[in-house]
Amino acid sequence: MPSHRKKSKFKVAKEAKRRARLGIGLPPPERVIVEKRHKPPKHKETFGDLVSNED
What share of the chain is helix, strand, coil (3-state, %, to 5)? Predict the structure, then answer.
C-alpha cells in the first residue's frame, strides 16, 4: 500500500489569503515600477562631450 501524505499544519495567514481570493478574486498581476531616482541617463555622452568636460 502507498504511504499516506502527512497533513500540513493549519496556517492562519494562508487561510485568510484563500478566503480573500474567494470573496474578491485574484489581484491584478504585479507590474515592475522603475524608480525615477536611480534611472540611468537616456543617452550616452559622446566623445566630444567627454573631452570638453575635462577642460
Answer: 40, 0, 60
pLDDT per residue as tens digits for the range 1-21: 678 888 889 899 999 888 888
This prediction has a pTM of 0.36
Whole-number Cα distances in Å, 37 to 34, 41, 43:
9, 11, 16
Between vectors from CA 48 to CA 39 and to CA 53, what angle results, nearest 5°? 70
Q: Which of 12, 32, 9 is nearest to 20 (CA)?
A: 12
